[in-house]
Amino acid sequence: MRFFFFHLMPYAPLDPDYDKIHRSSWVTLPNDYYDPELGAELYNRYLDELEYAAELGFEGIGVNEHHQNAYGLMPCPNVFAGMLARRIPATAKIAILGRALPVLANPLSVAEEFAVLDNVTRGRIITGFVRGIGAEYHSLAVNPTESHARFHEAHDLIVQAWTKPGPFTFEGKYYHFPHVNLWPRVYQEPHPPIWIPSQGSRETIEFAAAPDRRYVYLQTAAPAATLFRTMQGYRDEALRQGYQSSPDQLGWSIKIYVAETDEAARREARPHIESFANKFLRMPQEMLLPPGYTSLASMKGLINSRKTITGGYRTMEQMLEQGTFICGSPQTVIELLAEYQRRGGFNLVMAGLHFGTLPHELTRKNLELFAREVMPALKGAVPGEVPRVAAA
Q: What CA–CA distance (Å, rounded) separates 247 from 4?
């Protein structure tokens, strides 16, 4: 099992009563809720936590991209990766999970930025490409019905810029470049690893598992039952395409809290994981999944899955039962992660060890206990024979 520390950088001082007036912490929440003085303190604190995780021995640290919300203050993950690149140990990777390609006006700039980071870190960059959840299309005024086509075209442009000798011409439906001639070239050959975080759409799994890509598929924001189905879906798609996938092609992004005992862990985590689920993640369904964003078949599956994520008030007990949160003593967390790995067949864990309003001292404690007690017990763990479930 391989471990990364993932940070969302939420605006923790958010007025918890905002939802008495506003439907969502995304897109339409007035920005006068944001205090720049508090925000400046938060940014520096969160960067400290990411650097500390790298010092503790995580294989890497993860940042991501969201726009116009209190849930995650990272509209430009490449900037954060750049700030971290020279400050973390040379053994740690930086996973940018990921750039929302369809909402970008110029994907070639992403190719350039990643190439710079790849050179500065001497090949420690992991690139993540996503379509972005529906809220990003509302924020940046992009037609969601074009999401898939724009994603594939932007992906192809970036990969060609990394791998084809330049200059060459790129002519697509959405992007037109008479001169693609990347300076600098990427450091890693043939290009930095590409990971595909997703909520579990069928089209994304098929894209990631294609034999000419074999990208890491990272399941996000889903109950354990959905995790098992999507992991099976990836393995089945790989077999259909003529190869057997590796557990290193499969990962899980999951919120985790560790304390000395189960009782202490639940007591300390409760207000902060419930604030994450019920305040920061709050948005109406039409904002999350706007019409045309995905196929009808995938839409049905995502709506059913997301009912357990965004529908109604969610208690910590419900999240633990659904498998959207892991909480307990080191031994409890070890046993749960081992069982989820056995049933899911993944090797990569993107551990969300900060969430919601979790304060700095508890975040450091969580990081330390996880790195000292949990990671050493599971670093050699492999899935073995995975029990079959119905694929997504």
A: 16
Query: How large is the average pLDDT for residues 214-234?
Result: 96
Chain centre distance of CA 150: 20
Work out the burial of residue 297: count CB atoms within 10 Å of its CB; fewer than 13 is exposed, 13-18 middle, 19 or more buried.
exposed
Going by pLDDT thresholds of 50, 70 and 90, the confidence category of residue 301 is low
Q: What domains lie within the chain, and their CATH numbers?
A: 2-378 (3.20.20.30)
Bridge pairing between strands 60-63 and 176-180: unpaired
The SS3 assignment for 62 reads strand
**Torsional sign, CA 154, 75, 6, 122:** positive
Among 139, 84, 70, 152, CA closest to 117: 84
Q: What is the pLDDT of residue 291?
A: 85
- Where are any strands of DSSP class E within the chain? 2-6, 60-63, 93-100, 125-130, 168-171, 176-180, 194-198, 216-219, 250-258, 325-328, 348-352
Residue appearing with tokens 């971290």: 84
CB-based burial label for 65 (10 Å; 0-12, 13-18, 19+): buried
pLDDT score recorded for residue 342:
96
Q: Which pLDDT band, with edges at 50, 70 and 90, does 231 fall under?
A: very high
Q: How do residues 252-264 score in pLDDT, each as one tens digit?
A: 999 999 999 999 9
Q: How confident is the model at residue 338 (pLDDT cuts 50, 70, 90)?
A: very high
Q: For strand 125-130 and strand 194-198, is the pairing parallel, antiparallel, or unpaired?
A: parallel
Task: Compute CA distances 231 → 117, 255, 277, whole Å.
Answer: 30, 18, 24
Burial grade of 269 (CB within 10 A; 0-12, 13-18, 19 or more):
buried
Segment 22-42 shows an average pLDDT of 97
Q: Which residues, at least 6 apart from 190, have a Cβ–Cβ distance to it below 8 Å?
A: 162, 163
Q: What are phi and psi of 291, to 5 degrees?
A: -55, 135
Is 327 in a helix, a strand, or coil?
A: strand
Residues 6+ away with beta carbon under 8 Å from 65 = 74, 75, 76, 77, 96, 98, 99, 100, 130, 132
Q: State CA 116 to chain mean position distance.
A: 22
